[in-house]
Design a protein that fits this description.
Blueprint (H helix, E strand, L loop, with lengths): L3 E7 L7 H9 L4 E4 L6 H11 L7 H17 L2 E4 L6 H14 L6 E6 L7 H6 L20 E6 L4 H8 L4 E3 L7 H11 L6 H14 L26 E5 L4 E5 L9 H9 L8 E2 L4 E3 L4 E6 L2 E5 L2 E3 L4 E21 L3 H19 L5 E7 L13 H5 L3 E10 L2 H5 L8 H4 L4 E3 L7 E12 L6 E6 L2
Parallel strand pairs: 1-2, 2-3, 3-6, 4-6
Antiparallel strand pairs: 1-7, 4-19, 5-14, 7-8, 8-12, 9-10, 10-13, 11-12, 14-16, 14-17, 14-18, 15-16
Amino acid sequence: MTHVHIGGGQGFWGDSDDAAVHMVHREDLDYLACDYLAELTLSIMQRQRMKNPAAGYARDFIGLMAQIAAEAKRKGTRVLSDAGGMNITGCVDALAATAGRLGLHGYCIGYVLGDDVLAALPGMQADGIDLANLDDGRDFGDIADKVVNANVYYGHEPIVTCLEQGADVVVTGRATDSALFLAPLVHSFGWAPDDWDNLARGIMAGHLLECGGQGAGGNFDYDWRAVPDMANLGFPIAELTESSFHITKARDCGGLISVQSVKEQFLYEVHDPAAYITPDVTVDISQATLTQAGDNRVEVGGIKGKPRPDRLKLNIGYHAGYRVVTYLSFAWPDAYEKAQAAAEILLQKLAKKGLKYRDCLISYVGLNALHLGVADMSPERLRDQNEVILRLALLTDEKAEAEKIIPEIAPLQLNGPPGASFFGGRAKAQEVIGLWPTLIPRGAVQLTPHLQKVD
């Protein structure tokens, strides 16, 4: 019986390499998949590439591969990642150079192009695709002249082709996180394109691994104190056969695989448990089961699949204005009252300068910066605060407007309520990238798999 072992090596761009390195060197994985992208990450990468044509991908991945590529090749562990971002060929070239330095001659790098459809947007509109905002129905014309990037979420098919062609590593752009994990399973088991139940199992394997440590006791809301050795947190591993599905982790590392820890990741970002939509399959986990099957081992069952959607999600990043965020801390006594007074002074100065802004958010770190309107703001809570940090965030259409508030912040150390402390350096006006989700027909996208061998 075929057994497939897949490790989840990264949860986001900037995540630690430690767990991935440990997995590759301590376990016998068939595959390791590493997720670097989020909704707005591509817009950040596009800005990097506009400044430097050689940038625009997750350079962290190259550093990771320098540590694991040789061992992974020796063990037959194939690596998949969406680290290509907005410069997939640049990432491939850097990876090839790394493989060459490691002496991995004949190393095969697969990659997928076609998710970047920025240049195709006018043609889509001409073909009658309206690109309306998926959340609120706004017309695309509102932002058509402000677009930074446009990338389609796609599924497993072109990734499978790269594996079939013999790729040791596969680099993609905006494939879905879970497709990086589903593709090896489809390749290994030969699942049909309409085998919805098995495709759904594969998607949920990816879903449980795609956030790295969060699937193995990291960010564990239920009982974080019970997670052992978080300084050496292991990331989850999925073990699948045609009839079984388990989540576990590597040996000799920290972390926790329990029903409750898996359950938290199981439901993460799933808006409708009976219809979790992906490009590959619509997943139904409404009757799913999780069973403790041993130490740091959970069995997953009862996952069902339904046909995939007819359209693909397109995320468009666009210039949405400028922001300034600043902080002023105030010490006991009357810390909250002082912070409130400082906020009022700043608002008066904004009005005096005639500053035009779209939004202004005032919150107090330590009180309501996270919980906002549901925070406990009772007199008893406010009276004895040791310290409170005023946070003021301003959103404007023009950079010059945002910059008007900057000279007013530092002077409050001497010109406002007592006990103020200005930290973090002088505030700066920063560009805001907005997210515009929409749907497009599958036929509007042409995804192409490629293979490059290292000499």
